Amino acid sequence: MKESAGNPLHLKSVNHVSLVCRNISESIDFYQNVLGFVPIRRPGSFNFDGAWLFGHGIGIHLLQSENPDSLPKKSVINPKDNHLSFQCESVGNVEKFLKEMGIKYVRALVEEGGILVEQLFFHDPDGFMIEICDCDNLPVVPLVGDVARSCARVNSVQQMVQQQLRAN
């Protein structure tokens, strides 16, 4: 890993996101059957209800709320709210799936320099915002000192570097 002032903690990647849930079973069902996550083993030493899932290179740790009725209920889909975003191959196919599942969503379109990015926003069972997009169409443009790359190019370069480091 490159030593730099830009990575003082020597971080490698995002490991997981923890989400507090009203109902673990409903949340597992959503993350498994809508987003394609797979349940994985969770340490048995934990003394609280929860579940771990993994998919798309990231873990989702679901934690059962000790007071589910106290969790805020979100009904308005606001693309400017906190959210977790996933890239997809076809926003049209995702939109069709969401319609078939009866999941309410909001569609957005971003245009930057002639490049279009389609976005779909919807909630998990607890009101946490999910975005599905074709964001890898938009180049990653550093503010200073580097060249523009697409998200897909950045990811492939990072994977190649990691493979080379493992080989050495």
TrEMBL record:
SUPFAM superfamilies: Glyoxalase/Bleomycin resistance protein/Dihydroxybiphenyl dioxygenase. Residues 13-135 form the VOC domain. Pfam families: Glyoxalase (PF00903). InterPro entries: Glyas_Bleomycin-R_OHBP_Dase (IPR029068), Glyas_Fos-R_dOase_dom (IPR004360), VOC_core (IPR037523). This is VOC domain-containing protein. It comes from Citrus sinensis (Sweet orange).
